[in-house]
Design a protein that fits this description.
The structure holds 2 protein chains of 2 kinds.
Chain A lengths: L13 E6 L6 H8 L2 H4 L3 E6 L3 H10 L4 E5 L2 H7 L8 E10 L1 E6 H9 L8 H12 L6 E5 L5 H12 L8 E5 L5 H6 L5 E5 L2 H7 L3 E6 H4 L4 E8 H6 L1 H19 L4 H9 L8 H9 L1 E3 L6 E3 L4 E2 L10 H15 L5 H11 L2 H10 L19 E4 L2 E3 L14
Parallel strand pairs in A: 1-2, 1-3, 6-7, 6-8
Antiparallel strand pairs in A: 3-10, 4-10, 4-13, 5-8, 5-9, 11-12, 14-15
Chain B lengths: L11 E5 L3 H13 L3 E6 L5 H8 L3 E5 L5 H6 L11 E3 L6 H10 L1 E6 L4 H49 L3 H14 L4 H20 L1
Helix pairs in contact in B: 1-5, 5-6, 5-7, 6-7
Classes of the chains: A alpha/beta, B alpha/beta.
């Protein structure tokens, strides 16, 4: 274990960290509860924010020192997509997976009747949904939590897996996570892709049923990262290192399944997420329920923290996300531009620096090949990576 | 849909703010200087629908509204969104962005509008939001002072009863404790109340 006193002294001790009201803010919150910030000489104030745009802008103007960010957000911000253009970087991923796609209950019943079986195969529900669309006679509106998020990319991937054109066959809009369930119940939208606990809330009220988990669409995809501005990092390298170490310890703690129930009760607290333990429990404990009254299925990888090298900001994943952003913007980004932007944003060197201090192994490569593994595998001495398959897309020749 | 007449007509504004008095103040000032305020909407009330129906030139939005991510989604051009929206950045003026974020407000504009024409609307919003923040800070301060006074009165009463002393002696005790421990009168009063009330409970057993 590490002697925090022997680390370079923090340039700044009092920090403000931003997070959103989502289950996967667990590392930031548990680091506070478990005293990890304090252990590294940091006095952290956690700030719950209401939008990713606020988090980004408060980082840029210095109202926040660091924050939980959607993994594509530093890349989108470097392009100035949607809002301010700024250089945000990450040296630590906080979580893998954690999203799901939910459809309105009545529509979900139709998908079931058309042969959709989400728990067994996420592709089957997308194909069944295509049947329900009836050759363009029916128009659906689906929502995702942010324009440049894994949610929107996963939703588009899932639709394509079922032979649905996400541009032409459906309308995809952006809504804040907290408005998803209400908008679904009022019929404003027909479904959504969002982080937990908002899928479980829809299931528990019987308003919607889950059709696919993020894990099923992309096994072990980068979801949230710790973001700071590049300038902040340059001014506070030692503080940043201490912060990453505190969060990595929280992630390691969260990696143990038997700690998850405690995380549920801490996150539910009014000081943090102010939600019921019931809605947080299914995803965080990996006992996931797809529809009201349905069985709890063991999905231990619904949220991954601190294992399968979850903290490593793979540049290959970053390039893939940035390509997705370019596609959403209708811009084709040159391969050199993609490579250089990702190298600047995804600081694998900073991850390795922190891992060395904790005597943890880290991948020697910044890029990993496209996934072929359906089970955990060894990628080097002491390096275990998780399954890395993606939901298969139909052969375009069949379309 | 570039608007050919936009140079000659009043810019049309949508204001998104949950705080009614503040929204009214901003709206009134905007009208005074010749902006057309299309609608004032609280958060979470169908912003996308309003955008499509009203086609504003400018949207001023409170930072406590979760709808900013929704607005930014309109930066992407599509068949359904022919007029992209961009964040108003005061021509990349970081001090302006800092001031606006600190005041709790930000703005978006249609890309085809000259930012110079938008500037006045943003300055008004920024000034009004700052004024309301100051007012709120003053109110909080007053409330805190009142609260503190109540605590001090209560602590004095408890000290008088516990030690059979008069009011002046109780106050002197309280002030000395606060000075010795380098804490405010209010904090010290709260501690004394906590201790003496616990004693009172124990005394009952």
């Amino acid at each position: 274990m590490i002697d925090a006193a022997r680390l370079p002294p923090a340039e700044k001790r009092s920090l403000r960290l931003g997070y959103l009201r989502l289950s996967d803010s667990a590392p930031l919150i548990m680091a506070q509860e478990l005293g990890h910030y304090e252990k590294y000489g940091l006095d952290v104030e956690l700030r719950r924010e209401v939008s990713w745009a606020n988090v980004r802008d408060k980082l840029v103007v210095g109202d926040l020192d660091a924050a939980q960010l959607l993994a594509p957000l530093p890349l989108a911000t470097s392009l100035g997509a949607g809002g301010l253009r700024a250089e945000l970087i990450t040296g630590l991923a906080l979580s893998l997976n954690g999203n799901a796609i939910t459809l309105d209950q009545a529509l979900a019943d139709e998908v079931d009747a058309a042969g959709g079986d989400g728990p067994r195969d996420a592709g089957s529900t997308a194909r069944a949904l295509r049947q329900c669309l009836g050759n363009g006679r029916r128009h659906l509106t689906l929502a995702a939590a942010h324009s440049f998020s894994c949610h929107i990319l996963q939703l588009r991937h899932w639709l394509r897996a079922g032979g649905i054109d996400p541009q032409r066959d459906v309308q995809i809009i952006v809504l804040p996570p907290e408005q998803m369930v209400d908008s679904l119940s009022r019929g404003i939208i027909d479904g959504f892709c969002v982080g937990e606990p908002w899928n479980s809330v829809a299931v528990q009220y019987g308003i919607g049923a889950v059709q696919a988990t993020g894990y099923q669409i992309w096994n072990n995809a980068l979801e949230k990262v710790l973001g700071v501005t590049e300038a902040w990092h340059q001014q506070h390298p030692a503080t940043h290192l201490r912060l990453r170490l505190a969060l990595m310890e929280a992630c390691s703690w969260l990696a143990h399944p038997y700690n998850r129930e405690q995380a549920v009760s801490v996150l539910a607290d009014p000081r943090y997420l102010d939600l019921t333990a019931e809605c947080l429990r299914p995803a965080l404990t990996g006992q996931y329920v797809f529809r009201k009254g349905g069985p709890a299925l063991a999905l231990p990888h619904f949220h991954v923290f601190g294992r399968f090298q979850a903290g490593f900001p793979w540049r290959s994943d970053g390039e893939w996300l940035l390509q997705g952003i370019g596609e959403l913007l209708g811009r084709s980004l040159a391969p050199e531009e993609i490579r250089s932007r990702v190298q600047r944003c995804f600081r694998t060197d900073l991850y390795r620096e922190a891992a060395r201090h904790l005597d943890l192994p880290s991948p020697g490569q910044d890029y990993r090949p496209p996934g072929v593994h359906d089970a955990p595998f060894a990628a080097g001495p002491d390096i275990e990576l998780g399954p890395d398959l993606r939901l298969p897309l139909p052969d375009p020749r069949d379309a | 849909m570039p608007d050919k007449n936009s140079r000659h007509r009043a810019l049309r504004v949508i204001l998104v703010d949950d705080d009614q008095p503040r929204a009214q103040a901003v709206e009134a000032r905007l009208r005074d200087v010749g902006f057309e305020v299309l609608t004032v909407i609280p958060t979470a009330s169908g912003l996308l629908y309003q955008m499509a129906q009203r086609d504003p030139d400018v949207v001023i939005i409170a930072l406590d509204s979760p709808d900013r991510d929704v607005l930014e989604s309109l930066s992407v051009i599509s068949a359904r969104n022919p007029r992209p929206v961009v964040m108003f950045s005061g021509s990349g003026d970081t001090q302006f962005i800092r001031d606006a974020i600190r005041a709790g407000v930000t703005a978006y504009q249609a890309e085809d509008i000259n930012p110079e024409r938008v500037r006045a609307a943003i300055d008004i919003a920024l000034a009004q939001f700052s004024a309301f923040n100051d007012l709120r800070a003053q109110l909080d301060d007053t409330r805190r002072q009142l609260e503190e006074r109540k605590l001090v009165e209560k602590a004095k009463g408890l000290l008088m009863a516990a030690h059979a002393i008069n009011e002046e002696q109780a106050f002197t005790t309280l002030r000395k404790l606060a000075m010795d421990r380098n804490r405010t009168l209010g904090e010290t009063a709260r501690d004394i109340i906590a201790i003496l009330e616990k004693d009172k409970l124990r005394g009952r057993h």
